Amino acid sequence: VKILKSVVVAAAFLPFVTILSCGEDSGLGASVDVNPPTIEIKYPPLAANIRDSFTLYGTWDDDKGISKIEISVIDTLTKEEVEISNNLATFNNQNNTWSITVNAKSEDGKYELADGSYQIAATAYDGAGHATSDSRTFDIDNTPPVFVISKPGVVKSSGKSGSKYGST
Asked: What is residue 33's DSSP assignment?
């Protein structure tokens, strides 16, 4: 009977001991992932004007490592998400960097992103499902400048005539 009472008392206190020992610094220790990852975009710089395809890159950190980095692109004019061909960045676990090529050119010569202003977000996920994002706004300008020469010009003044190539 005494042994049975001791077992019942110990069983009653077991849940409290388990709950109190499950913190990060005790009990299960570092095996519990309670911290979200961090992520930072290093390139392109804030409010950059970008031409052609480019490499978006940055750094990340997490005490347990990350499982993926997703990229999303929002058109700032329409506020709609723009679908891109690849939205998963590659990441390096040795130096905590990541990168992805954005604005790929299709076979017909068009870029994924039309000229305009965009907000790009990089979201890092760790194995426990925690997520953190960083974002940047930038402009895409793939339209080349136009330089038009219609014909050589001549300004007629007294005593002067235009040369073979024109004169002003």
From this structure: -
Helix, strand and coil in the chain, % to nearest 5: 15, 40, 50
Structure tokens at 150: 């219609």
- Each residue's pLDDT, cut to its tens digit, for the chain (168 residues) gives 566 555 555 555 555 445 444 544 445 555 677 889 999 999 999 889 999 999 999 999 998 889 999 999 999 999 999 999 889 999 998 899 999 999 988 889 889 999 999 999 999 999 899 999 999 999 999 988 888 766 555 555 555 555 555 544
- Three-state secondary-structure class, residue 165: coil
CB burial of residue 87 (10 Å; 0-12, 13-18, 19+): middle
Stated pTM of the model: 0.68
Q: How far apart (Å, rounded) are the C-alpha atoms in residues 55 and 24?
A: 37
Contact criterion met (CB below 8 Å) for 85 and 138: no
Question: Phi and psi (nearest 5°) for 167?
Answer: -150, 160
